[in-house]
Amino acid sequence: MPRIWNETIEAHRDAVREATINATAALVAQHGLTGVTMSQIAKDTGIGRATLYKYFPDVESILVAWHARQVDDHLRELLRVRDRTAGAAERLEAVLTAYAQAIFHRRAHDNDIAGMLHRGEHVAASHQHLREFIRELIAEAAAAGAVREDAPAEELTVYCLHALAAATSLPDQAAIHRLVQTTLTGIRTGIRK
After folding, report:
1. Strand partners of residue 147
2. For residue range 5-40, what is the model confidence (pLDDT) as tens digits?
3. How far is the C-alpha of 173 from the C-alpha of 101, rounded, in Å?
4. CA distances (Å), 9 to each of 1, 6, 17, 165, in order?
5. How far, in Å, CA of 135 to CA of 114, rounded?
6. Over the stretch 40-68, which tens digit does the pLDDT of each residue have?
7. Beta bridge partners of 188
8. Burial of 113 (0-12, 13-18, 19+ CB in 10 A)
9. First to last CA, the chain
10. To the nearest 10°, the Cα dihedral for 27, 29, 31, 34?
11. Per-residue pLDDT tens digits for 105-116
12. Would the pTM of this model clear 0.70, i.e. be above it?
């Protein structure tokens, strides 16, 4: 019985967290960051305030949990893109395109929310994971002769990630495609100092 009881408690805990995160994200989208209170969240989820405070001390902690989930989802999507694409150069291009797309869609974040959410340990760890992931793809493409080898893969990774950050300012999908192609041109073989 204890195992079943523990599984039931864990399932309840997960359901409360998910309902809280989803309701908070919807409320912030509707009312803005300063327009959401723990009382509203409790009302929208049907979860008592005492239970809500047991899991989250404030609205900001809920939003940080939501953001961590979003970041994890983006990283999983990049892994899926990599895994369904054949060829080292093709994998690199597909992943960089998916990353630029994610950045393009992220621009909808409210600046106050983005500033609050993009600091913290979960973001630093995710950025490090992303850098290692892209560096491995670049090293693989370099070994296949598709990426220049006169610069370390780590430097080319930093170049790509910084270049693709411009996707937040682009007007449409065609501009994203041009940005990715321009970025790739900078790291392909045949480019020398």
Report:
1. 188
2. 777 888 888 899 899 999 988 888 888 777 889 999
3. 8
4. 12, 5, 12, 42
5. 26
6. 999 999 999 999 999 999 988 888 888 88
7. 147
8. middle
9. 69
10. 90
11. 875 554 555 555
12. yes
Q: Which amino acid is at 147?
A: V
Output the DSSP codes for the chain: -HHHHHHHHHHHHHHHHHHHHHHHHHHHHHH-GGG--HHHHHHHHT--HHHHHHH-SSHHHHHHHHHHHHHHHHHHHHHHHHHT--SHHHHHHHHHHHHHHHHHHHTTS-HHHHHHHTSSHHHHHHHHHHHHHHHHHHHHHHHTTSB-SSS-HHHHHHHHHHHHGGGGG--SHHHHHHHHHHHHHHHBTT---
Q: What is the pLDDT of residues 139-155, one digit of tens each?
A: 999 999 999 999 999 99
Q: Which tokens hold the place of 88?
A: 């080292």
Question: Which residue's structure tokens are 């430097």?
Answer: 155
Go through the chain and tell me how many residues it has.
193
Nearest C-alpha neighbor of 138 from the set 151, 147, 128: 147
Q: For 188, phi and psi rounded to 5 degrees?
A: -70, 160
Q: What's the token pair of residue 14?
A: 């997960």
Cα 19 from chain centroid (whole Å):
20
